[in-house]
TrEMBL record:
Catalytic activity as recorded in UniProt: O-phospho-L-homoserine + H2O = L-threonine + phosphate
Enzyme class, first EC level, given as a word: lyase
EC number: 4.2.3.1
Name of the gene: thrC
Keyword Lyase belongs to the record: yes
Domain Tryptophan synthase beta chain-like PALP: 92-337
InterPro entries per record: Ser/Thr_deHydtase_PyrdxlP-BS, Thr_synth_N, Thr_synth_N_sf, Thr_synthase-like, TrpB-like_PALP, TrpB-like_PALP_sf
Pfam families, alphabetized: PALP (PF00291), Thr_synth_N (PF14821)
Originating organism: Campylobacter ureolyticus
Protein name according to UniProt: Threonine synthase
């Protein structure tokens, strides 16, 4: 199966092309031309599959151009997670409410679920083509560490990570700036995530930049969810949640469940939408936002408007986003390429657009104070959650089986946990997280503890306008 552009359905490319060249015609995003459908007979068999087997069944159903052996190798990256047999953990937290913990990988965020296998595929394709690639990622906190980890020690891939200086948690920052491999470069920018993402998209379409890279024997790609390779692996864990419910008798036959997703750039929620489209019995996809509530307005009122909005820094920084890229893929699925192209032009030129209300979604947003209160309330059940996961509790209580997509380990946001539970401030982040872990019979992962003694290798902080030249200087060294 080939992929097409959200802004030009006449374009047709293979998955391997789309992974290595993620910018589609007219600045669009790549999406599959069709989606396979799974029926009840498939799901009866799926309950007997482990996670990697289910993933391979789903991927193979697309009939992409990449060899199955490469996908198998990619999925073997899950062997490095806490449990090599299953990279996630689904836990019941209250009546009808379950948490899908997606943070049991090396950087303790859900981005590992996609970026660990994605990194192997890109590496294998680069080796196969005998080419070297520069992968750029823009991060609001979790994509950066996960991308750097996915490509550490790669001989065919260099990585540049753009993060908003003073716009991530301290642990997220340390995960990036202590990266030690020569093929990795971390750049703090004086701006926010939207600035970083805009710079990424600009560079992907910059012929002068790409020609400069070619002179250094480098080709350009991206690790953000503009790259469909990321979305492909995000579909799978929503499928697995459904299969898990069937296996454990929580759902039977055609019974449905809801999913609550903390969302900024909409990639995670899009994965749920595609899983539903492909046959998982998902009823409502509930979008939880922080005070940067553009998605709340879109799904409640059909209006996407950032004209008079300024980014608000919150305690859930990975969702501090106003330009939510993956919404474009949903628009294409609902309205087609011509209308999507017009809507995106409106957003670029007028900073807004209006659409009919899209069914199957609900949306709410959560203030920092509400978020703190949810962390405190859940801690009384003996469980610690991060601020992004906490936004999902705005939708509680629930009346039917519901899965909260939990996106990060609480240790990455210790100051917010201390504020919620102790009504105080962090004095020593490492000691405070160790004390919290002891109190709640939890464990601080060694990868996080070691950050506090690792040397900070990356100290580059630049203005937005200096990003391109800074990258060029680095690759020429």
């Amino acid at each position: 199966m080939n992929l097409t552009s959200t802004r030009d359905k006449t374009q047709s490319v293979t998955l391997s092309y789309a992974l290595l060249n993620p910018s589609a015609n007219f600045g669009g995003l790549f999406v599959p031309k069709n989606f396979p459908k799974f029926d009840n007979e498939f799901f009866k068999k799926a309950v007997h599959l482990n996670y990697k087997e289910l993933a391979l069944e789903i991927i193979n159903s697309f009939n992409f151009d990449i060899d199955e052996e490469i996908f198998k190798l990619a999925l073997s990256s899950y062997d490095k997670f806490d449990d090599k047999n299953i990279p996630l953990k689904i836990e019941k937290i209250s009546e009808n409410l379950y948490i899908n913990e997606l943070y049991h990988g090396p950087t303790r965020a859900f981005k590992d679920m996609a970026l660990q296998p994605f990194g192997i595929i890109i590496d294998e394709l680069a080796k196969k083509d005998d080419k070297n690639y520069l992968i750029i990622c823009a991060t609001s906190g979790d994509t950066g560490p996960a991308t750097l980890k996915a490509f550490e020690n790669s001989k065919n891939v260099k990585v540049v990570c753009l993060y908003p200086y003073e716009g991530t948690s301290e642990v997220q920052r340390l995960q990036m700036v202590t990266s030690n491999d020569r093929n990795l470069k971390v750049i703090g920018i004086k701006g926010n995530f939207d600035d970083a993402q805009k710079a990424l998209k600009t560079l992907l379409g910059d012929d002068d930049f790409k020609n400069t890279l070619k002179k250094e024997n480098l080709f350009l790609s991206a690790a953000n969810s503009v790259n469909f390779g990321r979305i492909l692996f995000q579909i799978i864990y929503h499928f697995y949640a459904y299969v898990n419910f069937l296996k454990n008798g929580i759902l039977k036959g055609d019974e449905t469940f809801d999913i609550i997703v903390p969302s900024g750039n909409f990639g995670n929620a899009l994965g749920a939408y595609y899983a539903k489209k492909m046959g998982a019995k998902i009823d409502i996809i509930k979008i939880a936002s922080n005070q940067n509530n553009v998605l709340t307005n879109l799904f409640n009122d059909g209006i996407y408007d950032i004209k008079n909005k300024s980014l608000i820094k919150t305690i859930s920084p990975a969702m501090d986003i106003l330009v939510s890229s993956n919404v474009e893929r949903l628009l294409f699925d609902k309205f087609g390429d011509i209308k999507t192209k017009k809507l995106m032009q409106n957003l670029r030129d007028n900073k807004n657009y209006k659409i009919p209300k899209i069914k199957g979604f609900e949306a709410k947003f959560c203030t920092d104070e509400e978020c703190i209160n949810f962390i405190k309330e859940i801690s009384k059940k003996g469980k610690l959650i991060d601020p992004h996961t906490a936004t999902c509790f705005k939708f509680t209580p629930v009346k039917k089986p519901t899965v909260i997509t939990s996106t990060a380990h609480w240790v990455k946001f210790t100051p917010s946990i201390i504020r919620a539970i102790k009504n105080g401030e962090v004095k020593n982040e490492k000691n405070d997280m160790l004390n919290l872990a002891k109190e709640f019979n939890d464990k601080v992962p060694n990868e996080i503890l070691s950050l506090f003694s690792n040397e900070e290798k990356h100290k580059t902080i630049v203005e937005k306008e200096e990003i391109k030249n800074t990258i060029i200087e680095w690759i020429k060294k």
